[in-house]
Amino acid sequence: MALHSELWFPSVIWSAMTHHIDNTSLRRYAYERKKEDTGVQISNYGGWQSNSLESGCHYEIDNLVEYLNLEIDNCRRQVGLNEVELYNIWININPPNSYNHLHNHVGAVFSGVYYVHAEDYQGNIQFERNDGAEYHIPESIDKATYYTSTRASYKAKTGAIYIFPGWLKHSVEGNQTQKDRISISFNCGRK
Length: 191
Known about the structure:
The chain has 2 helices and 11 strands. It has helices at about 25-35, 60-80, and strands at about 15, 45, 50, 85-95, 100-105, 110-115, 125-130, 150-155, 160-165, 170, 180-190. A 6-stranded antiparallel β-sheet has the order 1-9-6-11-4-3. The chain has a 5-stranded antiparallel β-sheet with strand order 2-5-10-7-8, with no helix packed on it.
């Protein structure tokens, strides 16, 4: 008789590529916003993070929010949660050598990022396991798996969207190019 397996406490990361967002318009708006918004310093080192954006601030932000709401609703259904709502969204501009420290989003059920402009070597997003498994898993593993890995890295690329639990610790590698990486991050919580 074989053992029955159950997957408890999973760290789900949803990903997609979208091509129906006007990134040229969002990029232009990001630089306009930076001129009038001093921004905030939270996990960013060397980059600029806007204050939370309001509905109606830009038509393409509203278009993105509409798309995000559909995707977030799909995510919450997959994991059996009641309805959630997007409660803040902000722009990130990360110039050369900037990065984001390891952090999580306290109070968020889901968090995520959409890449407005990102190329190779501009800094991937990395998710960290924080259950202490690194002290128990042997170092001599032939191949890392979902069970044995302590870090997962997702490529920063234009049009990519990643949604993940707000409690999942993550960081963003340094931008090693001479161009800015531009993204839009967001948090969702209970209605």
